[in-house]
Write a structure and sequence with these properties.
Length: 68
């Protein structure tokens, strides 16, 4: 898939754990893990907004498109 998820990079920059972010965003750690590993097929805008708010970042900071 040409969409690359860099959520782990942003989480490391902010020094926040998966469990802490999942609690703040309101999704399960399992679902956040699926997103973090790039296995998710979709993400709700409300979830993306909540993640960006908590990490103080832009959507483009956690997702990028690469031409394969």
């Amino acid at each position: 898939m040409p969409i690359i998820i860099n959520l782990d990079v942003e989480m490391a920059k902010k020094k926040i754990s998966l469990n802490e972010l999942s609690e703040r965003v309101g999704i399960t750690p399992a679902n956040l893990s699926i997103l973090k590993t790039g296995k998710a097929k979709a993400i709700r805008f409300s979830t993306l907004e909540a993640i960006c708010k908590e990490l103080n970042c832009q959507p483009g900071d956690i997702m990028e498109w690469r031409d394969e």
